Amino acid sequence: MSSSQSLQLPRWMDVGLLPLWNLCVALAVAGLVVLVIGQSPTQALAVLLQGSLGSVRGLGYTLYYTTTFIFAGLAVAMAFHGGLFNIGGEGQATFGGLGVALMALTLSASLPAWLMLPLLVVSGALFGMFWALVPAYLQAWRGSHIVITTIMFNFLASSLNVYLLVNVLRPKGSMAVESANFADSARMPALHNLAQSLGVEMPSSPLNLSLLLALLACVFVWWFLWKSRAGYALRSVGSAPKAAHYAGIRPRMQVLIAMGLSGALAGMVGVNEISGVQGKLTLDFVAGAGFTGIAVSLMGRNHPVGIVLASLLFGVLYQGGVEVAFEVPGFSREMVVTVQGLIVLFAGAMAMVSAPMFAKLYAAFQRTVPKVSHG
Fold this sequence. Notes:
mainly alpha; ABC transporter involved in vitamin B12 uptake, BtuC; globular
């Protein structure tokens, strides 16, 4: 079966049925692995779903993870549509968190929340954008490969964060490698606190208003890529750079735009983690979310709606996986990571393996359906 035949799938099958089938295959294989190691797949799945979706607190944690993954997935998708593979989300998120922390430590004691919070969002986005623009410039004008430079910039951002925390931002006399606590005006409001102010009792969770920012970012990415002139130019360069150049579009500038917006989206991870949860700058607060964003973007077909759904799936896996590791005897955290990896493998990296089978089934179905005559 050729690739052209697999592309004959209708849209509802390509973006709906095929990903659902891949997810079911991934869960089936993961269930077999769980069975081989001597555990009950049904028990593990039940605990996973109960721990992630079965309570208000569990749902809060799931949506908190989902928020981070939405930002990371959108960052990868934005660069991908420009023909670039941005593997630097980890470093860009780290640098965005550093921008959030510097702004908070400098101004939060003297500014009210209604002014401080927008400044934190802008600072996180700008710092993430800056960290992505340097590799973008190196590729566009110096010929450096974006994959190599963004990987290296992950290490640079992490090292810079460690240096600043140890030598500059750590309060005197403190043994913990973290900054001072932010003033209350620099804390993104938590959902349970907002509910309590309205007279509704909710269990505490790290979910905060950054979720609203993530959903607004999805709307922006959809509008920019598919409804704006600038987005059309960016996608043109990503699809056919020589043709776009012939049409008068400057590919070098599109590299800067794609990576700049990608870095800004990745930097928003720092808003959720640093302002919304930690309330201070810490070591390794990104915790691999930048790399998870690659899988999220692949599973979501680089579309905001798909990225939201894939992020929710990974939120369920992360939160539910923690519950499984605690509740199921003999089921370690490493086993949970193995199950997550299988889902990434089958539902992400091998997303098109089953496409020829679906194309054959759809073609056979089309031949068996009698054509209705209107004459």
